[in-house]
Amino acid sequence: MIRGFDTVVKEKALLVGTITRGMDEYDLSDHLDELNMLADTAGAEVVGRVTQKINKINPAFYIGKGKAEQVLSQAEELNVSLLIFDNELSPAQIKNYHKIAKDLKVIDRSALILDIFQKHANTREARTQVDLAYYEYLLPRLTRQWTHLERQMGGIGTRAGMGETQIEIDRRLIRERISRLKKDLKKIEKERQTQSKKRAEEFRCALVGYTNAGKSTLFNALTGSKVYIQDQLFATLDTTIRHLEISESHKVLLSDTVGFIRKLPHHLVASFRSTLKEVIEANLLLILLDMSSPQIIEHAETIENVLKDLDAQKIPTLFVLNKVDLITDDNLVLKLQRRFPDSVMISAKSHLRLSELKKRIGGLMEIEYETIDLSFSFDEGKMIAKAQEGVEVIEREWTENGLQLRIRGHRTRIEKLLKNKI
Q1: Helices and strands (H and E) in the chain: how many
Q2: How distant, in Å, are the alpha carbons of 115, 153, 387 from that of 416?
Q3: How many domains is the chain partitioned into structurally?
Q4: Residues 290 and 276 in one domain
Q5: Secondary structure class of 269 (helix, strand, coil)
Q6: Alpha-carbon distance 307 to 110, whole Å?
Q7: Which comes out higher in pLDDT, residue 106 or 152?
Q8: Is there a domain that residue 179 lies in?
Q9: What digits encode the pLDDT tens for the residues 111-123?
Q10: Is residue 332 part of a domain?
Q11: Mean pLDDT across the stretch 294-306?
Q12: pLDDT at 124 over 90
């Protein structure tokens, strides 16, 4: 998106997708629909799509050379300034396109996602993480072939001075920048670890899901917060944490995390690892899915794959199927119930069945709760007060020797009380 003095001019983009082994035209159409949404979020106007069925990847152009020349010719006819590939291009492939593409910018899905993340990164942590992922992606692709980019105009794929960076900054300076960003990120991670230790005794619940599934809407509905919501991919990047009261005796720390998407750039996953620690360290994952989406099964598989990448697949999960108010087909409801047998169907926007969701969370919390008896003498006033914090007091009885307490709480809290008592 290029900003003028008083108007915003959208860059015209052409999408390129391929049908590879194990795919069909429906799969490709779905992938390109998502790429179209990403392009729209970045501020581009998609004017066409080009597809090709390939048996193997062409090392020079990804698609066949003849098809590549056809795509460039079509782009020129449509007055397109941006070519977006759904698949990740190698540095050599990007270099080859820039040799023959004249003034056309050629980027891939990863570059597009990084552009969107740069656009939406507001906090110091998010900016540091995105910048690190961007420079690690850029380093092997830094060649003189980028000099065709218009220095002043910028635009998608050149956000934050990306065009100037590739022209003026050499590999040594980028490596220095990467090193500095990694040091900054380590400091941020230490701060996050300190905050995490303070929350260690509380039951932690993380909202995870495909981007645009309604996580922030559900987070606001449950906690009464006012987290930023927009009908865009990756509208929010920063993890927000709030207390949520499930019942008088059950309270959780609920976190709203960055959304997942298929083919998420690995540099981005790696740099966002500190933010995603809220997922890794959670006691329960609420996997939110848009049940009105035809791709709900694939979205669930994408989320499960990302959780495996984070080594978080062993954490207890609860599938939450959102937007039930948009479903009129009873057969679809039955089909999804069979596919996700222990799920809860809700509408975050309409606040439907949120009490059922809370009840299910409370039931899963009980699995990790323990009941113990503690005895205190009269002179252990501070210990008595602390023993009743963050737990449910089932019985309280004063005797001639002191106080007898029967309490129930999360095992981490119980373990700490027993340790202090010993």
Answers
A1: 15, 15
A2: 45, 59, 10
A3: 3
A4: yes
A5: helix
A6: 19
A7: 106
A8: no
A9: 998 888 888 777 7
A10: yes
A11: 90
A12: no
